[in-house]
Structure formats: C-alpha cells, structure tokens
Amino acid sequence: MFKKVITLMVLMNLSLVAGKYTIDDSIFMANGWEKPFSRALVTSTNYDYASEAYSINNNVTWEHGGVDIIASLNESVYAIDDGEILYFVKNYNTDNTSRIYIKHKSTNGDFIVTYGHVMILPSVETNYNNGNKQVTQGMPIGTIERFGSPDHIHFEIRDSAHDSTIYDAKFGSIKGNVVNPLDYLKTNQNDSATNSIKGVLDGAGSLVSPKESC
Q: What does the alpha-carbon distance between residue 84 and residue 87 come to, in Å, rounded to a whole number?
C-alpha cells in the first residue's frame, strides 16, 4: 500500500511538470540533418528519451528509447539524411507498430533511425523490393499511422550500427546502442546528405496526456 501511495505521488508530480514544448530546428539543421516533418516539431517531457514519466505512466520497467514527436494521422514523414533502408514492418492491426529502419551516416560513423508508427510509402516499398534500398535527404518515406493519442512518430537512434542485422523482438530492438536522438544529431555532423533542407512551416500539436502511449 505504501509503495502504491509513493508511486501515485511521483506520478502526480511528474504530471504537473510535464508539458508540451517545441524542439529547436537547429538541433537538426545546424549539422545538416533534415527534419522528419516540414514544420515545427512538438513533443512533451513525458515522451523524451529515457523519460521516467513514460515508465511510470505506462506501467513498464524500461525507459523510453526515443522521442515521440506529435503528428497528424497520414502526415508525410521525410528521411533526415541520405541512407539505406534496412528493414520495414507493415502492421495493419490495432497496435500499429509499423516502422522503417534506415541506416544513415554521420562524421562519426553509421547509425540507425527507427521511424516508428510510420507506414512505408508504396513507391518506396516497390523500390526496396526491386533492390533499390537508397533514400535521399528530404525524401518522403512514409505516413503516420494511428497509435495512442495524439498521433506521433517514435523517433529513435542507435549508433555503432555497422551492418544490417536487425533483431526485432517487439519495437525498435535492433543492433546498436540506443542514444538520446536529439543529443546525437546536435553533436554529430551529417556526412553524406545532399543538404537539400526544406523550408520550415508553421505547425501546432495537441497536449500530451500523462496516460497516452508511446
């Protein structure tokens, strides 16, 4: 009983401090990365990398492995850099864990981005099946699928990803070490992209509730 009371108190405190905020465009663009959406990027402290609030609110023992960026259903998602599609999942069930794994390159080596809750575009899937697994920076690669509320992309980065081996136990469980995606992009320069940065459009998101899912 005492443990439940303490957990409830922590949850209430985290919920009070959690709030929506805009991710600074310079995190992506200063080092030559593209944003996954052509607008302002909005998230919540509940859904930051390694968020304690995420673990408590969703009653799980693991920390959040990425950053959830609020989106609109069927919104286009863009590749942050030139890269190679390693693998993708198309999931039409209610859990909607569709995702695309793309290997990109920074000046410090390869890394893999998980574009989670994203359904691959038919044209990109056709290219992949025909042996063309390459994407270019700013290229539309998929659209947002419904998962939880509000709709969002689970944006995750793993570094030290030097081959295409992927172990997909549930969600985003692939080769490489999970790192803070925003810190990684802020501290690592783009190595291979065309730097065709798109203009920033105004955008708005809805408030993330403490009970919403990743």
A: 9
Per-range mean pLDDT, top range of 37-51, 70-84, 96-110: 70-84
- Tokens for 134, please give them: 């390459």
**Residue for token pair 């959406």:** 37
CA 36 to chain centroid, in Å, comes to 9
- Express the helix, strand and coil content of the chain in percent, nearest 5 each: 20, 30, 50
Query: How far, in Å, are 4, 96, 102, 120 from residue 78 at the CA level?
Result: 43, 19, 11, 11
Report the Cα 99 to chain-centroid distance in Å.
10
Band of the pLDDT at 199, cuts 50, 70, 90? very low
The overall pTM is greater than 0.85: no
